[in-house]
């Protein structure tokens, strides 16, 4: 019995010390869903964000257990807005195995504003397509608060939109 406990403890310790990485779901185009960085370093700083970057950001927000401060750095509303992606992650709406999301075009671009479409689906429900906006703040593209509010309304989450 003692030998089993030591073995189980060692296995738990080994599992707990594995670094957090984003593990996007399987996709037909692995480049779109690749994770070039760990979640703590994730930032979209390119002049014009790509669909792959925006898609990775949405997956970080709603399909990973990344820490609140990491998610807050991706949102225009910062700490005040983290409640939205946290709740979506907890209920598992748009993450494997029962759901998914993908950012697609059409896109529009201005120097500090970019739009694209977030397509989110979950088992037993129709796909939801939301035109989302990102804002460039301090050189980083962040999901706009008004897009979070549209998402709350679209999927019917009981969250007040008071982080704008």
TrEMBL record:
Keyword hit for Signal: yes
Similarity section: Belongs to the MTB12 family.
Keyword Chaperone attached: no
Pfam families the record matches: Mtb12_C
Domain Low molecular weight antigen MTB12-like C-terminal: 48-157
Listed name of the protein: Low molecular weight antigen MTB12-like C-terminal domain-containing protein
Signal peptide: 1-23
Keyword annotations from UniProtKB, A to Z: Signal
Domain of life: Bacteria
């Amino acid at each position: 019995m003692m030998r089993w406990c030591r073995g189980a403890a060692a296995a738990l310790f080994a599992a707990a010390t594995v670094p957090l990485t984003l593990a996007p779901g399987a996709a037909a185009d692995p480049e779109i869903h690749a994770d070039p960085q760990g979640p703590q370093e994730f930032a979209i700083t390119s002049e014009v964000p790509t669909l792959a970057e925006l898609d990775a950001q949405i997956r970080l927000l709603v399909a990973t257990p990344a820490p609140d401060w990491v998610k807050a750095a991706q949102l225009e509303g910062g700490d005040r807005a983290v409640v939205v992606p946290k709740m979506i992650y907890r209920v598992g709406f748009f993450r494997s195995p029962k759901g998914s999301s993908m950012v697609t075009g059409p896109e529009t671009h201005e120097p500090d504003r970019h739009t694209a479409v977030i397509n989110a689906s979950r088992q037993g429900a129709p796909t939801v397509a939301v035109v989302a906006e990102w804002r460039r703040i301090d050189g980083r593209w962040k999901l706009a608060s008004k897009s979070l509010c549209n998402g709350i309304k679209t999927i019917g989450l009981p969250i007040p939109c008071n982080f704008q």
